[in-house]
Amino acid sequence: MSRDLTMKKDKITIVGGGTAGWLAALVISRRNPLYDVTVVSSEKIGVIGVGESTTGFFTNVVCNEFFDLDCDINEFISETGATLKYSIKHKGWTKDKNQHYHGPIDGWGFSENTEDIFLKYALAYETDQDELLSISQMGSYISTGKSNFNNGHFTDFSHAMHIDAHLAGQYFRKKCLQKDNVVHFDTEVINVNLDEKGYISSIDCADGKNIKSDIFIDCTGFKRLLLNKLGAKWHSYKENLPVKAAIPFHLPYNQNEMPEPYTTATALSAGWMWQIPLMDRKGCGYAFDTDFITPDQAYSEIESKLGTKVDASPLIKFDSGRQEESWIKNCIAIGLSSAFLEPLEATSIHTTLCQIKSLSDEFILSNAKDTLNTGSIELYNKRTRLLFDDTRDFLVMHYMGGRNDTEFWKYISSGNTQTEYVKNLIEMSKYKVPGPNDFPSYFGAAGWGLYSHVMKGLGLLDPAMCRKNIESDFLQIPFTKTLVDHDYRPLKEFIATRSENSLSYNSFIQYFRDKRKN
Q1: Above 50 in pLDDT, residue 485?
Q2: Which residues pair with 153 in a beta bridge?
């Protein structure tokens, strides 16, 4: 039975702005209209721009594919200077520091009937990374210089995006405050008050307000202001993900330089450097392990690598890990308050959106009393732990390319950082091609296609073994002759028909640069 909308609504208060806070507010206010939503955030508190890169899930959100948020992707790009992301280019992650590989965000964009054999075939016979890239839809855009954009419209929404975290948050803030059931207070929280049962009853703010609420959402980032008050316990991943600091910085484009349609992740002496091409600048940073290099040494390495001076932002320190419980009593932590692994693969904003979708679609019920049942809290926490633990495994795999030219990489190559899952997957892959059932397959997990590109790029899949594995498959595939002749034409022709009328990527950039000027 639907609830009478004239009744007094229960209240959800979100503490913290930024991308996580405003996305949570926007989705919850639209998907759960039986609640009044309050956002408490301060313009005095800056936004941590560690990532500025997203997965395809973010595009789904901006395009209203999961939620009716009244967003518009053209408007979003025009207002924020976002660009399209088709892949991550990994450079120097193996013993050959000049080697690179791509991980297209769509993994393998084939139909379900042909995906299995095409992937196995590509792994078995293809050694050229650029050729391997071209047989996925997103990869083909890179190899042909095309885009999935034409005549002011996108032909599909399979891409991810590079974003400015601050401007993206402001865009979602604007959309959020268009709703009648959302209010915003620009102030800071100075105290968290608990009731006799240990639930958060209210928060005291710097401007004198005392804000009561039925449910609180902690989006205060590394401060974890609300959840820590409830005795939250941190589960560290530092044994598996030893990178623990980052130096973010921006780079201007050179004259006539155009943004690339992919993120670049370059392995350095004690970690790796990201370059994320936005419309008007590059968002960059060096994530490194302070056990092997000092911040000053890291800064010098950046400038040596780039051959130019950089104006770096303050050092960001972090402990990779997650909360043992992201939901305690009437408080749910989302975003950095809940977990942070490291900037690689845009996992922070991805897992944030997974949390928001799960919470708003499945766990927020018609009233706060029903929502705060112990069964839901336990199941949500179990699901969230699994998501973060599986994502950790995916990131750990990226470091398994055998590089050992510095003390940091010698430590990594010794196997000290391997999780049991990664260790077993690498061992199994010496004897058979990993298949879909060997990887997590629930919504939000990094699946078979994404893992396979990484493992292939790192040299963890032996072509001879792959060829041996697929001999029996060939006997049951009607296009055996095509595959055995090493001919990708049917697949490439199919991919080409999807992008033949699209603009070049440079034309997409120019189109939105002109719009931003106007």
Answers
A1: no
A2: 150
The angle subtended at Cα 6 by Cα 366 and Cα 210, nearest 5°, is: 75
Q: Which two tokens stand for residue 385?
A: 């732990």
Q: How far apart are CA 169 and CA 177, in angstroms?
A: 12
pLDDT digits (tens, 9 = 90+) for 335-389: 999 999 999 999 999 999 999 999 999 999 999 999 999 999 999 999 999 999 9
At 442-473, the pLDDT tens digits run 989 998 888 988 998 999 987 777 777 666 55
425, 430, 436, 438: CA torsion to nearest 10: -30
CA distance 42 to 460: 47
Reference 172, options 74, 84, 72, 83; nearest CA is 72
Write out the DSSP string of 196-233.
Answer: TTS-EEEEEETTS-EEE-SEEEE--GGG-TTGGGGT--
Q: How many residues are given for the chain?
A: 518
Looking up tokens 């199941």, which residue turns up?
379
pLDDT score of 401: 97
Q: Kindly state the DSSP code that residue 246 receives in the 8-state scheme.
A: E
Bridge-partner residues for 440, per DSSP? Answer: none
C-beta of residue 29 within 8 angstroms of C-beta of residue 37: yes
Cα–Cα distance, 307 to 376 (Å, whole number) = 53
DSSP assignment letter at 359: I
Residue 466 to residue 452: CA distance in whole angstroms: 12
